[in-house]
Target: DAK2 domain-containing protein
Amino acid sequence: MTQFINARENIVTEAIDGLLMTSGGTLERLDGYPHIRVVTRTGWDRSRVALVSGGGSGHEPAHAGFVGEGMLTAAVCGDIFASPSVDAVLAGILAVTGPAGCLLIVKNYTGDRLNFGLAAERARAFGLSVSMVIVDDDIALPDLPQARGVAGTLFVHKIAGALAEQGADLATVTEAATRVIEGTKSIGMSLDTCTVPGAAKEDRIPAGKAELGLGIHGEAGVEQIPFESAAQALGEATKKLAATMDDAPHVVLLNNLGGTTVLEMSLLAQELANSALAPRLAHIVGPASMMTSLDMRGFSISVCPLSPADLALLESPVPLPAWPGCRPLSAVTTRALPDGLTPIKPLASPHPQTAAFLVKCCDILIAAEKDLNALDAKSGDGDTGSTLAGAARALKDAMDRLPLADHTQLYRAIGQELSQTMGGSSGVLLAIFFAAAGDAAASGQSLVNAMRAGMARMQEIGGARPGDRTMIDALSPALDALEQGIPAAAAAAREGAEHTATLERAQAGRAAYVNPEQLRGHVDPGAEAIARLFEGLTT
Model:
């Protein structure tokens, strides 16, 4: 996979310098490139306990992103997924440690344990007070003699860092770190492995599967399970965590492993807040990218028992963009719509024939969802099918609320429903179409003429004309032929839709911004939807 890098051997040093250049002068590094890569706070008061952490790079913003007031004093950065050298760790310790001593916070990986441990011994030989704690929060592999250290490490950084900032001594800071480690549990899940710069990607996780309990270096997890939905995936992860927790209030950290979108992470947060684990979760950190695995399409959840004292330390503000803060996990609150936007609902009236016709129209659009999305991906953002299918599902759900026996009111009610449930410009345009058709029907016009009036209003506001490569290219000829029957309208719609494949430039809609080469030979998805709708009604 192509990545935004220059040379693999320089990626870590260049990334560190980028972090320093954008830190506003709050960070600096030791002059030891390329072998010693240590990021430190500027203006550090060596009379306080120093906190040093680090490990392999590729977990950004950890660890250098958490260097700053109230968290780490220094971060020692190794190569991608590789422990830093003993000399690099020792340099970091010597650079920031004064009479108050230093705490090393180390994730439980062999290389980190050995290199940080030996560096600690050498620092003690210099007469420095150095403590070391090992974070082993991963519960994925219960039979592993030494559990891995993963995103729960951030609880240690924050709580120990806040105590050190307040002037606590080394014994107090170390005791707090040890206590947090003992209570912290984490588990991760991903839909894909990560891509290490300069190396071939390992395609270990097949489509339709999710891997539970994989490590932050892409190590295999405890099992691969069928992936059905975000709710199911998160439920599998929280089930593992629940077995390790008591009923005390906990803080939860929802971490993006690097390649999961912000939209997906917010959805996962919603699922977490509604999960069986939720009654034991009082506060949340995230969702955010904190301890990543390059571009891994996954998430991890870490939990820690929450005492009032620890909560105060977690909530203490820090000026670090990488730390998202600790907040109460609260219920959704709502406000009533402003006056004028609350819809006036028409009186529902049953009409089985009309209901059956509308349901058939909806089912046609729902069945075409994947095909229309694939077609739209060639000229837009790939969501035409989902937009129409979502509106169709919402309309089916609203069927018992519609004035089915009064077609004049029905047009308006459909327009109102679409304006609320259908996103994008399509929703607005179709809402205009049905509202105008309702007005025309109320003035006594026939069904066909009412629909033509709706199309005219839609064109007036939307600006599209036949030949502009939009749904109008299929809708207009279909309405012209509708008086001859639905088969004639379907044939006209299909001819109009196919014609859009010969139009190399769109004059309206999102496709207007697309290179003509991408449009050539592809039917406009909106026109295709109209053609499929009429064709489906002929059967």
The first helix runs from residue 11 to 21.
